[in-house]
Amino acid sequence: MPALARRLFPVTRVTAGLMIFLSAFLVYLLSVNSVWATDHATSFLQLDWAIWTHHSFVLGSASTFQPNTVDDFVFNGNYYSALAPGTAILALPFAGVGFLLDGHFTVFGYALMASEVFVALLNAVAAYLVYAVGRLFFSKRTSVFLAFVYAFSTISWPFATYFFQSDVTAMFDLLAVYFTIRITRSGDARVRDAVLAGLSVGVALTTDYVNAILIPIIGAYLILSLRASGRPFPRIAAGFLLASLLGVLLIGLYNEAIFGTAFHTTEQVYLNSATPFGEFSTPVYQGIFLNLFSPLRGLFVYSIFLVLGALGLAGMLRGKSHRTEAVLLLACFLGIFLPYSAWYDPVGGAAFGPRFLVAAIPFLLIPAGLVIEEGSRGTRIVAFLLYAAGVVVNGIAGVTEGIAPTTNWGQSPFLSFTFPNFLHGELDDWWVKFVGQYWPIPAVLLIATAIALPLVSYRLLSKGEKDGGIGMEVPPPAGGPQGG
Q: pTM, whole model, 2 decimals?
């Protein structure tokens, strides 16, 4: 009878990566904001509307246009968005559908939610990529757990519900690092992977100019790693560099269309800075404290799990098997972390946690796999408890809001703003109007589901190893993870 049942009702083969992606995307869809039109979101939507309707980067004339956001500026009598344009341009198909449904421009309509669906989609892909990069080092179970940590126990969750560039940038940065490590760990380095890594960095820098620092970091890593192993590197390095420069070219063309020169960025003109480097004016030691330890923006405050990442990174650097990859992960983390620690406004305005650093989080998070795999059962229990704590903090923000207005370095936005709003039912989710006073039920269930997902996946993976029900997208490299 069981055999007949399996023939009549075959169980669909589910891959670990698909499970991660669908879980993250579904949770994000149930968290998207329908209330707040932030400065970033407004400016992005204005640019999308200008492109969609007028096929122009001009938001409107200074004499008639109402910007309604601090992220616009005037140049030669016209308003422009001060933000890097990549996020808005990539989201244009989603925003366009929203504009068609709205019938006119509004920042409180379908276009806002459609653009948030775009961000949610890309951050779900980013969660999968954390798994994919993790599989280059660790077992399947550990890599799946790391993916859920990124998806639900870091500030990537709150920002997956808003039209911000943070999660979008993280996805492309992860994609670049994935292809880069695959090149150096493969016995047959392919130019195709180098081109894909370069294109990923190129797109990333169109969404956030700071990502340009990854071009020399990844380029140097490829050259030094391939040269040390005695393999030819000129074609690989050239493929990466030429592909990444496509992003520089696109930004240059965008600047040329607005300013008549490729060498002035919108952010630079917006800040009246003589050079792009004038935007980095905060003493870096202050920014480091702010972004790591302060109640306002500390990474270790909003996701205490990252302490394990720091320990794992130190362990990878001390060891021999993954030392070179650990150097790359550290360099990518610092390449984003240090510039934004010196940013002229390191607080970043109204935000929940260090929104500038979302793209850096995976590179500190992934090495935590070493601590989990080499630790005892007690270590894994502690890791799960740290994960759950991060889910509660970021999950409450995910269903409440990710733009807490607190800017006092010594004050916690979670305790002073987000958590009180949650207790009063002041959520920003689209489904609140349908459930009314019963909002605690779906809100708590959503957070509880995120906490339980690693446990459910563990059971599925354990069963899958016995009957083949769970697949694996990224094969472990030679000398890579064993078991799991």
A: 0.92
